[in-house]
Amino acid sequence: MSKNDFHKKPGLPLYLQIKDHLLGKIDSGFWQEGEMVPTEAELCEAYKVSKITIREAVKLLVKDGKLKRTPGKGTFVIKNKLEQKLNRFFSFTRWAEQNGLRPASRILKVENMACDAQIAEHLSIRRGQAVTRIERLRIGGEEPLMLEVIWIPAALCPGIHLKDISNLPLNDILEKEYDITLVRATE
What's the pLDDT score for residue 52? Predict the structure, then answer.
């Protein structure tokens, strides 16, 4: 790590500046996936700061999913996670196709049940009302990327648990089979 590529800026906590600098090194490929980053002592020396400052910066990068601490071994760069801003309804199938991945799903569980108070509140229905719970693993290429759990009021979509929903966008099934257009979702 070059001593000349980090300059302290007034007005921003030092641990945040160091976090951003380390993040830049990760994102630029300076440290590769699986590579151990310098030790706390080495980072303290390079940045001329205390261990507390380094620990706080590293803790934020661990929380953000950029680094992983392994006790007794070190701190490592972890695999980049695929990120998607969910500012509109998310379609995994469309997202995977747009990113050059072959979308697939594996249905893990489909069950009809009475909903508890928490699910009832989210769905704006009464506690104990029948719902269909669908759990499916979403795959891009050959890699599992997302675990999806879907709760649908059973009265709105009778028989949905019998449909082949493994590789079709659920939004499409709801619109075509049940004439339902989503207007609100918690993702």
Answer: 96
Q: Minimal CA–CA distance to 58: which of 49, 48, 50, 68?
A: 68
Contact residues for 60 (Cβ-Cβ < 8 A; gap 6+): 15, 16, 19
Structure-block tokens of residue 126? 């009464």
Query: Can you tell me the mean pLDDT for 4-14?
Result: 82
In this prediction the pTM is 0.50
What is the C-alpha separation between 95 and 88, in angstroms, rounded? Answer: 12
Structure tokens at 3: 């001593």
Which of these CATH numbers, 3.40.980.10, 3.30.1330.30, 1.10.10.10, 3.40.50.1370, describes 3-77?
1.10.10.10
| Cα 54 from Cα 43, distance rounded (Å) | 7
Do you know the residue count of the chain? 187
Determine the Cα–Cα distance for residues 173 and 164; give it in Å rounded to an integer: 10
pLDDT tens sequence across 84-112: 444 456 677 778 888 888 888 888 999 99
Packed helices 51-63 and 14-27: angle between N→C axes, nearest 10 degrees? 50
CATH of span 92-178: 3.40.1410.10
